[in-house]
Amino acid sequence: MQHEEVELTRDCQAEQIPLGTTVTLRKGTAAVITQALGDTYTVRLPNGGLYRITSQEADALGKDPQSVATTASLHEGPLTEEMVWAQLKDVYDPEIPINVVDLGLIYDLQLEPQADGESKVFVRMTLTAQGCGMGPSLARDAQQRIEVLPGVAEADVQVVWDPPWHPDMMSPEGKKKLGVE
């Protein structure tokens, strides 16, 4: 994506990167969209700060809001691990244009069938840096994407630090995108 200059058309909620602090960006603020992946936007303000804006706030950027449920509705049939992995591939690090799966941040994924035919989904994930405050936001994004899949009773996404993340954990696609060999 080429960077796109916009002006906020209304006040909107955003998360400051990398702290994860929720802030209100004011109507009329100039911003540059530096990344639009999954259904989130990363914007840079004139002060140099980076912020993550969700699709629910996209209209403030002049974009059409998207629903996480839209991509989930493309899946048919009983819940499978492949369906969950596909949803997780739409969760992006706000600073790196690579999804959490190809970054190697997903350590474990398990489906636990329930008596009613639905499943609980358990995911263990990490971040590229322990000091990153975006962990709760990325975990919440992953949880919401999983919970809209048909057949999911609930999703439990935990951020863990063991083992520590290393670039060798990236998929070949992720390494290619970053130029890491």
Q: Which structural class matches the secondary elements? A: alpha+beta
Q: Give the mean pLDDT.
A: 91
Instruction: Tell me the CATH topology of the largest domain.
Output: GMP Synthetase, Chain A, domain 3
Helix segment count? 4
The low-confidence runs, each spanning 5 or more residues with pLDDT under 50, are: none
Task: Encode the helix/strand succession as letters.
Answer: EEEEEEHHEEHEH
Distance between the termini: 23 Å
Strand content of the residues, in percent? 25-35%
Question: Biggest β-sheet: count, sense, barrel?
Answer: 6 strands, antiparallel
What's the shape? globular
Helix content: 10-25%
The CATH architecture of the largest domain is 2-Layer Sandwich
CATH homologous superfamily placement of the largest domain = Fe-S cluster assembly (FSCA)
Give the strand line-up of the largest sheet: 1-4-5-6-2-3
Give a count of the beta strands, DSSP E runs of length 2 or more. 9
Output the radius of gyration.
17 Å
- Classified by CATH, the class of the largest domain is Alpha Beta
Number of structural units classed as domains: 2
Provide tags for this entry.
181 residues, alpha+beta, SH3 type barrels, GMP Synthetase, Chain A, domain 3, 2 domains, three-stranded mixed β-sheet, 30% strand
